[in-house]
């Protein structure tokens, strides 16, 4: 998965726009501005609960085209959140998408990025339409140490997985091999245990499962930053609570595609194991004062968006709309985002908080989750 998706020369995400009607899949921010607006309002509300600490940053993992961040920054500007006390950090490995994001978020496509100081952790920087500093990073570990609003929308589903199956001899890993007769790729089962089989499986009831060590490491890094520097995390993705088995698949031209056929031309994905992410976020680390981070969720997208006011936002937009086609598109977008048969039940929301927020959250639970 890592090689097919992020190979520097021919990786799926590295040199093309894969989003939208002309790409291979559509994400919620591309459907309607309402999605990003409500996420922004939620983040501002939770930041306020924390005492509105400054300086602070919003860090998005895998920002896509930058559409979600653009909608959020517009809302942040309404709350007068901009300037030197607020910055945007984008974790992006694709040079092509980095350029797309800059065109989306910065005043003009012709704007040249400001020079990156030597020795900096970021590889690119620019100024947003609203005056905030935007910096691009290769990895979450490179982000500045400050209060952070973490956002990961459809990020974890693209991280590599290991597929394990239970056979008579115990757990074995499903690997990908080359059939020398026809030179096609094929699945094979490892002869012996592999390092991935060291994953804790003693109480596992499933006969088959997918594990993503990279997802667990990144979640622990996020949790550690939240614990040490302060912050909040919001993860949005399609996934399950540790009960699904075989979800590895490909998408091409908005249709299912065999992952082993024409690698590099289709998106590869697997449902996110939210139970594993919650485990990773709450595990003790080496801090002397460690108390497990708090997690809320998962909740379905339809429930989260409804609770934070998408119906009211739709009414507001329709009331100011004078174009019949635009009004119809708004209603269609609302349905796609919230209908259980569309995205409403497919996507899940998970929130992470530092343990010091426990008493506040007991009194003022996070909207969207209750």
UniProtKB/TrEMBL annotation:
Its EC number is 2.1.1.320. Keywords: Methyltransferase, Mitochondrion, Transferase. SUPFAM superfamilies: S-adenosyl-L-methionine-dependent methyltransferases. Pfam families: Methyltransf_28. Gene3D superfamilies: 3.40.50.12710. InterPro entries: NDUFAF7 (IPR003788), NDUFAF7_sf (IPR038375), SAM-dependent_MTases_sf (IPR029063). One of its GO terms (biological process) is mitochondrial respiratory chain complex I assembly. One of its GO terms (cellular component) is mitochondrion. It comes from the Eukaryota. It catalyses: L-arginyl-[protein] + 2 S-adenosyl-L-methionine = N(omega),N(omega)'-dimethyl-L-arginyl-[protein] + 2 S-adenosyl-L-homocysteine + 2 H(+). It is found in: Mitochondrion. It is an enzyme of class 2 (transferase). GO terms for molecular function: protein-arginine omega-N symmetric methyltransferase activity. PANTHER family: PROTEIN ARGININE METHYLTRANSFERASE NDUFAF7, MITOCHONDRIAL. Belongs to the NDUFAF7 family. Arginine methyltransferase involved in the assembly or stability of mitochondrial NADH:ubiquinone oxidoreductase complex (complex I). This is Protein arginine methyltransferase NDUFAF7. It comes from Daphnia lumholtzi. The gene is EOG090X06OK.
């Amino acid at each position: 998965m890592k090689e097919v998706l992020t190979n520097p020369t021919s990786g799926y995400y590295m040199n093309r726009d894969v989003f939208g009607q002309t790409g291979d899949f559509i994400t919620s921010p591309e459907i309607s501005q309402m999605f990003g607006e409500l996420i922004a309002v939620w983040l501002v509300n939770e930041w306020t609960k924390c005492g509105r600490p400054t300086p602070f940053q919003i860090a998005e993992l895998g920002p896509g085209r930058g559409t979600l961040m653009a909608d959020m920054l517009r809302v942040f500007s309404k709350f007068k959140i901009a300037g030197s006390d607020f910055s945007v950090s984008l974790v992006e490995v694709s040079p092509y998408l980095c350029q797309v994001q800059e065109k989306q978020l910065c005043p003009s496509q012709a704007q040249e990025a400001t020079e990156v100081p030597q020795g900096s952790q970021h590889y690119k920087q620019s100024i947003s339409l609203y005056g905030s500093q935007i910096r691009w990073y290769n990895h979450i570990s490179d982000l500045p140490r400050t209060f952070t609003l973490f956002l990961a929308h459809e990020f974890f589903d693209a991280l590599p997985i290991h597929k394990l199956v239970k056979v008579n001899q115990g757990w074995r890993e499903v690997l990908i091999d080359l059939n020398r007769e026809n030179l096609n790729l094929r699945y094979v089962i490892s002869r012996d245990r592999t390092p991935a089989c060291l994953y804790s499986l003693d109480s596992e009831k499933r006969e088959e499962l997918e594990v993503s060590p990279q997802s667990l490491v990144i979640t622990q890094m996020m949790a550690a930053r939240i614990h040490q520097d302060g912050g909040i995390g919001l993860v949005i993705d399609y996934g399950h609570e540790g009960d699904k088995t075989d979800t590895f698949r490909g998408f091409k031209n908005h249709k299912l595609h065999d992952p082993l056929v024409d690698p590099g031309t289709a998106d590869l994905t697997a449902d996110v194991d939210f139970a594993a992410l919650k485990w990773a976020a709450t595990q003790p680390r080496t801090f002397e004062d460690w108390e497990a981070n708090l997690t809320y969720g998962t909740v379905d997208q339809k429930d989260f968006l409804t609770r934070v006011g998408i119906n009211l936002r739709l009414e507001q937009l329709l009331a100011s709309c004078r174009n019949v086609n635009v009004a119809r598109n708004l209603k269609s977008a609302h349905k796609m985002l919230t209908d259980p048969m569309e995205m409403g039940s497919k996507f899940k929301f998970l929130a992470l908080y530092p343990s010091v927020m426990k008493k506040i959250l007991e009194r003022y639970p996070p909207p969207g989750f209750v």
